C-alpha cells in the first residue's frame, strides 16, 4: 500500500535509538524525508548515517526538546533542509520508576519536562507551518501505562497527559487539515528495556498477560505511526491506537 508519505518531511523526537529510531526508519522507507533528533549526539548521528547508507533521506539535529529556543531551531532547520514540516512524532521520553514515597521532585520533573513539555513545545513550533500548508500529522507516543502502573506515577501521568493533549489539539486543528493521534505501546523489546536487570522477569510477565504471545518489537510501533501519518488515516483524529498485543489493563 502506498501511504502517500513520499517527500513528506517528518520530525521524530528521541529518535537516536529504540522506538524513535525504528519509526524514523519506517517513515524514511515510505519515502519521507526524516529529521532524526535527540539529545544524544553520537547515537543520533549514527542512526542518521545508517539511514543515509541505505539510500534514505535523513538529517540529524541535536536538540534538547525541553528548551523552546532549541525546539524552534530544530523546526526551522528541518524546514530549511527539506522544505517544510508535515509530520511530527512526539516520541522522546524515559522512565524514572519509584514508589511515590521514594520519588523525588527531580524524578517527577524530568519525566514531565521531556514527555509533556517537550511535546507541547514541538507541537507549538510545527503548528504554524502545518496550518499554512493545510496538512499535518502529529502523533504522540503514549503508553499502555496511561491506565496506571505501580512505581510509575510520573510516567503514567505524563503518558495520560499526552493523550489529553492529542484530543485537545485534534479539536483545535482539525479545520486546518491536521490530525492529532496517539500510539500507546505495550511491552516492547528495546535497548533501554533489555538493559534492565529484571528484563527477563518483566518480559515473561508481560507475555503471560497478553493475548498475543510474543514480545512487541519497535517495528510494531513504527508501522502504527506510519499508518496514522498517512493519507489512509486522514479521517482519524483524537484517537489512541493501542499496540499492546491485546493487553489493556
TrEMBL record:
SMART domains linked to this entry: PKS_KR (SM00822)
Signal peptide region: none
Catalytic activity: a (3R)-hydroxyacyl-[ACP] + NADP(+) = a 3-oxoacyl-[ACP] + NADPH + H(+)
SUPFAM superfamilies named in the record: NAD(P)-binding Rossmann-fold domains (SSF51735)
Domain Ketoreductase as annotated: residue spans: 8-186
Keywords associated with the record: NADP, Oxidoreductase
One Pfam family it belongs to: adh_short_C2
Annotated Gene3D superfamilies: NAD(P)-binding Rossmann-like Domain (3.40.50.720)
Entry annotated with the keyword Hydrolase: no
A GO molecular-function annotation: 3-oxoacyl-[acyl-carrier-protein] reductase (NADPH) activity
Swiss-Prot/TrEMBL GO biological process terms: monocarboxylic acid metabolic process
PANTHER family (alphabetical): 3-OXOACYL-(ACYL-CARRIER-PROTEIN) REDUCTASE, 3-OXOACYL-[ACYL-CARRIER-PROTEIN] REDUCTASE FABG
Family: Belongs to the short-chain dehydrogenases/reductases (SDR) family.
Function of the protein: Catalyzes the NADPH-dependent reduction of beta-ketoacyl-ACP substrates to beta-hydroxyacyl-ACP products, the first reductive step in the elongation cycle of fatty acid biosynthesis.
Protein name as annotated: 3-oxoacyl-[acyl-carrier-protein] reductase FabG
Organism: Pseudorhodoferax soli
Amino acid at each position: 500500500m502506498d501511504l502517500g508519505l513520499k517527500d513528506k518531511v517528518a520530525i521524530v523526537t528521541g529518535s537516536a535509538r529504540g522506538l524513535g529510531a525504528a519509526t524514523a526508519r519506517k517513515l524514511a522507507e515510505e519515502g519521507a524525508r526524516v529529521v532524526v533528533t535527540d539529545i544524544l549526539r553520537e547515537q543520533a548521528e549514527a542512526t542518521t548515517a545508517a539511514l543515509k547508507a541505505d539510500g534514505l533521506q535523513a538529517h540529524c539535529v541535536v536538540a534538547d526538546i525541553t528548551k523552546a529556543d532549541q525546539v524552534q531551531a530544530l523546526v526551522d532547520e528541518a524546514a530549511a533542509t527539506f522544505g517544510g514540516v508535515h509530520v511530527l512524532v512526539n516520541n522522546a521520553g524515559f522512565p524514572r520508576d519509584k514508589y511515590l514515597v521514594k520519588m523525588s521532585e527531580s524524578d517527577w520533573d524530568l519525566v514531565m519536562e521531556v514527555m509533556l513539555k517537550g511535546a507541547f513545545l514541538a507541537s507549538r513550533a510545527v503548528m504554524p507551518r502545518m496550518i499554512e500548508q493545510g496538512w499535518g500529522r502529529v502523533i504522540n507516543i503514549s503508553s499502555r501505562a496511561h491506565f496506571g502502573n505501580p512505581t510509575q506515577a510520573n510516567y503514567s501521568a505524563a503518558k495520560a497527559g499526552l493523550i489529553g493533549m492529542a484530543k485537545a489539539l485534534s479539536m483545535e486543528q482539525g479545520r486546518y487539515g491536521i490530525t492529532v493521534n496517539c500510539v500507546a505501546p505495550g511491552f516492547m523489546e528495546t535497548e533501554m528495556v533489555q538493559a534492565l536487570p529484571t528484563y527477563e522477569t518483566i518480559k515473561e510477565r508481560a507475555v503471560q498477560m497478553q493475548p498475543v504471545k510474543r514480545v512487541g518489537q519497535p517495528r510494531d510501533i513504527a508501522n502504527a505511526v506510519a499508518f496514522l501519518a498517512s493519507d489512509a488515516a486522514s479521517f482519524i483524529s483524537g484517537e489512541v491506537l493501542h499496540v499492546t498485543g491485546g493487553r489493556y489493563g
